[in-house]
Automatic annotation (TrEMBL):
The gene is TRMT11. This is tRNA (guanine(10)-N(2))-methyltransferase TRMT11. GO terms for cellular component: cytoplasm; tRNA (m2G10) methyltransferase complex. Catalytic subunit of the TRMT11-TRM112 methyltransferase complex, that specifically mediates the S-adenosyl-L-methionine-dependent N(2)-methylation of guanosine nucleotide at position 10 (m2G10) in tRNAs. This is one of the major tRNA (guanine-N(2))-methyltransferases. Keywords: Cytoplasm, Methyltransferase, RNA-binding, S-adenosyl-L-methionine, Transferase, tRNA processing, tRNA-binding. It comes from Monodelphis domestica. Its EC number is 2.1.1.214. It comes from the Eukaryota. The lineage of its organism: Eukaryota, Metazoa, Chordata, Craniata, Vertebrata.
Amino acid sequence: MALPSTLNRYLLLLAQEHLEFRLPEIKSLLSLFGGRFSNHQEIHGKSPFWILSIPSEDIARNLMKRTVCAKSIFELWGHGKSPEELYKSLKSYPMEKMAPFLHSDTTYKIKIHTFNKTLTQEEKIKRIDALEFLPFEGKVNLKTPQHIFSILEDYGLDPNHIPEKPLNIYFGRWIADGQRELIESYSVKKRHFIGNTSMDAGLSFIMANHGKVKENDIVFDPFVGTGGLLIPSAHFGAYVCGTDIDYNTVHGLGKASRKNQKWRGPDENIKANLRQYGLEKYYLDVLVSDASKPSWRKGLFFDAIITDPPYGIRESTRKTGSQKEVPKGIEKCPESHIPVSINYHLSDMFVDLLNFAAETLVLGGRLVYWLPVYLPEYTEEIVPRHPCLKLISNCEQRLSSHTARRLVTMEKVKDFEDQDHYSHLLDNQFLPYKGLNSFREKYFSGVTKRIAKEEKSIQE
């Protein structure tokens, strides 16, 4: 199918991790910067090489200023399944598009990138020499070139059966690199204040990108914990806030999560985490509050809600309340009263979360959250729905052989009305979703079975 003349073709080189999360991230970022993910995109599943049709180089550069799933992007000049096809493709590329980067006043270098195979230096030089038909008039500069060109060869995904010849060969002009270095610079290992469930830095940035967080947004996390999900949003220029039911975590008190450290220090708190990265100015506040009983007045507040609710594995699922019957006539507790907490069923937690998002997100705002699932019983019907929220993506991360969690992204598409509050009760999808209440038991039953199996094999 012919590509529209208004679109330019770019080659995206992706990292080979979090494979399910890559496409939703790229789609979200293209949408954020004014691009559109059209049917002309050539996506090859698990392959690290994708060909994208993007309206402008500016959008391509903005995409790379945000993505942690992609390594680099190139303006694609040629593509083929053999050297001959590549050369033919290059010769048909419009000269007027090449000319600005090839004239005599420029400097350049050509790099070779291979996936799933290593080439010798002699083989690399041979491939570069074969491009002598291209009208390069500038000087070669290997240290500080003005323009970098790359030959990229794809030898498939199977390291045990590497073909002699590449499956695909690409040639393009390097445009920009992605933000892979953020994974290391924001690593939880280096973070001042962490908890038992602090989110991996790479996934945290993916969540912010799925949420289309941008400068001057207001981003909220109702299960904020140690604030790990606030950091990527603040890095992208959004103002951040959150709530959590755990007083000690919000105030940075109690036992430390780090090995060989008994108690948290006086400067171990969420605000200090943002200060560590120079992001303190984006910190609004974090409140001790029960997510099942939001303390916010009616109205639209948030551009994105990004959260990782507790599943009852490492962190308990709690809300304020009592198992005892409340005596009649007592309408409110004295100020000195500290409410006890009771179990917060997962089904209720996610229903409350979706209702809260539907009420407080601006139109077009996004909810991004993790949903735990027991794989033998998982179907897409388990993912909760809401009439005000459109499902954008649903990506899996395996936790064990029998459990996983799904990163669910939803977008607010209509204003919240009173009848929407209980709409889930009328939907058959709510029934299988109730099974999530036993996720903890199912999770540990699988662990128990595995241990028993291992002990049996040892005895044999």
